[in-house]
Design goal:
Elements (H helix, E strand, L loop, with lengths): L1 E7 L2 H6 L3 E6 L5 H12 L1 H7 L11 E4 L2 E2 H4 L11 E5 L6
Parallel strand pairs: 1-5
Antiparallel strand pairs: 1-2, 3-4, 3-5
Helix pairs in contact: 2-3
Length: 95
């Protein structure tokens, strides 16, 4: 088993009722597994917020693993390690 920290911002902070949580995952878990675990813990409202109707992560979210953008870090299938910090930033709006 491994533990990963998840930091969230804005609306996600409201849904998770915390700025940071720690999630325990099986060895070899990926970012996709982490997102699935979060949905299992926090339910349909989080699922609807993060994922499109087709089941894919909505494109406008920015995800960082240890400060590196998910695409540069290896994509959503990147295997996570003990102590990794995953930051999920919702879309930024304003004007």
């Amino acid at each position: 088993m491994l533990k990963v920290k998840v930091r969230v911002f804005a609306r996600l902070r409201e849904l998770l009722k915390s700025r940071e949580i720690e999630v325990e995952l099986s060895d070899g878990a990926t970012l996709v597994d982490l997102l699935g675990a979060l949905v299992e813990i926090y339910g349909k409202e989080l699922k609807d917020y993060l994922f499109s109707e087709s089941g894919g992560l909505k494109e406008h979210f920015m995800i960082y693993i240890n400060g590196v953008g998910v695409n540069e870090a290896g994509g959503v299938n990147k295997v996570l390690k003990e102590g990794d910090v995953v930051a999920i930033l919702p879309p930024i709006s304003g004007g």
